[in-house]
Amino acid sequence: MSNLYNPRLHIMDHPLIKHKISMLRRKETNTKDFRQLVSEIALMIGYEATRDLPLEEAEIETPLMKTTGYFLPKQVCLTPILRAGLGMVDAMLTLIPAARVGHIGLYRDPKTFKPVEYYCKLPPDVAERVVIVLDPMLATGGSASAAIGFLKKRGVRLIKLVNIIGAPEGVEVIFREHPDVDIYLGCLDQKLNDHAYILPGLGDAGDRLFGTL
Asked: In the structure, what pLDDT confidence band is assigned to residue 1 with cuts at 50, 70 and 90?
């Protein structure tokens, strides 16, 4: 899988992220703790994913003197893939409170495993923004690729994909279909099973986030 050796693939190597993902995987982790862990991990991955955001200079005045300050332009749009991506939004808004939030609704057809769109609502100026797509799991890559495709059709040029756990198959799909997108993963797992679930994975992230097991 040569595409995995790609400078646009960023796999986190922080001890705290590894620790929290291990807690997240446990089948006995309850809904409350699962939700909290997703948020905490998203915050840490989000910090890395925003490392290269552009800054604007402006003169400011401290109590002692004038100096140059550096500020984020208001040009970020967080876009969770419904429904599991919602669990990552609040953490990212902690990092970027002025960000706009779009939503893309997709579900996976249980027979074909292909994504089916049922909702898409984005800011009117989304084409002018850096868009960070959020979804805890990158499995087949179909939903993420479709979401990225929707964004590109609306003129978005700068897109980042943030996932907590990914499968090699999903990573390859994104880089094959969208080679200009950076992927930020908390962990790269082994493979997909016959039902397109990530192994070892953590089960269905949406069900575990919202208590609908």
From this structure: very low
With contact defined as beta carbons under 8 Å apart, do 153 and 166 qualify?
no
Per the annotation, the verdict on 194 as an active-site residue is no
Q: Is 207 a catalytic residue?
A: yes
Is 121 in contact with 103 (CB distance < 8 Å)? yes
Q: Which two tokens stand for residue 178?
A: 């969208």
Structural domains in the chain?
A: 2-52+75-210 (3.40.50.2020)
Query: Which of the following is catalytic: 29, 31, 90, 204?
Result: 204
Rounded CA-CA distance 25/27 in Å is 6
Single pTM value for the model: 0.91
What residues have CB less than 8 Å from 141, skipping those under 6 apart?
169, 170, 171, 172, 173, 174, 177
Tell me which DSSP letter residue 125 carries.
T
Q: Using an 8 Å Cβ cutoff, are 88 and 76 in contact?
A: no
The DSSP bridge partners found for residue 187 are 165
Instruction: Provide mean pLDDT across the span 181-192.
Output: 97
Of 51, 67, 112, 194, the catalytic one is 112
| Residue pair 189/136 in contact by the 8 Å Cβ criterion | no
Residue 83 designated active-site: no
Q: What is the pLDDT of residues 92-146, one digit of tens each?
A: 999 999 999 999 998 777 777 677 888 899 999 999 999 999 999 999 999 999 9
| Of 8, 35, 108, 154, catalytic | 108
Active site residue 112: yes
